[in-house]
Design a protein that fits this description.
Blueprint: H1 4-17, E1 26-29, E2 39-44, E3 51-55, E4 65-66, H2 68-71, E5 87-92, E6 100-104, E7 110-113, H3 119-123, H4 148-161, E8 167-168
Antiparallel strand pairs: 1-2, 2-3, 3-4, 5-6, 5-8, 6-7
Length: about 170
């Protein structure tokens, strides 16, 4: 059986190898004296708040060292770089003159946009706002200030002004 000091030293080494900066261990003694058989301790990473737990006399269904800090890399110390979102462009469809294509940059993937009702959502990718006064419409239904047909026409103009302009893909691909 390992002593609490041996377990703390081993645990700190293991957590440090995962990038954690563990704080001081807090000990709990079970029994009437400081020399009881079962001693538990816990510590928390100062960067990410993940915890680790140790016990000198684990029960049959326990292990002596456990917790997130023992099994997971510290995100506070080693931040995971954000994924690059794919870029898209809007193009006029060569085969359907009244339609647009959403194309993923650097690939042959594209989506045909043939409904006028899709234009307001696409125009919003380029900063267009259907109604800046009330903000109660997505551009496909009338509001107190504008008719849907006017907003759809505006959205088409915004798309035409932004043909071939790269923007982040919100989830088309």
């Amino acid at each position: 059986m390992k002593t609490i000091d041996q377990l703390e030293k081993e645990t700190k080494r293991l957590c440090t190898s995962r990038g954690h900066k563990m704080g001081r261990f807090v000990r709990l003694h079970y029994g009437w004296s400081q020399k009881s058989e079962r001693i538990e301790a816990s510590s928390t990473c100062e960067n990410c708040r993940m915890e680790v737990f140790i016990t000198t006399s684990p029960y049959p269904n326990e292990i002596d060292i456990s917790g997130q800090a023992i099994g997971l890399t510290c995100p506070g110390n080693n931040p995971i770089p954000p994924m690059k979102k794919p870029k898209i462009t809007i193009e006029k469809s060569p085969n359907a003159p009244c339609c647009f294509l959403i194309q993923q940059v650097g690939t042959n993937k594209s989506i045909l946009i043939q409904s006028d009702w899709d234009c307001p959502g696409i125009a919003q990718l380029f900063g267009w706002v259907p109604c800046s006064i009330c903000d109660y419409t997505d551009g496909t239904i009338d509001c107190e200030h504008k008719k849907a047909s006017d907003m759809i026409a505006e959205a088409k103009e915004v798309i035409l002004e932004n043909l071939s302009v790269e923007t982040e893909d919100p989830g088309y691909f």
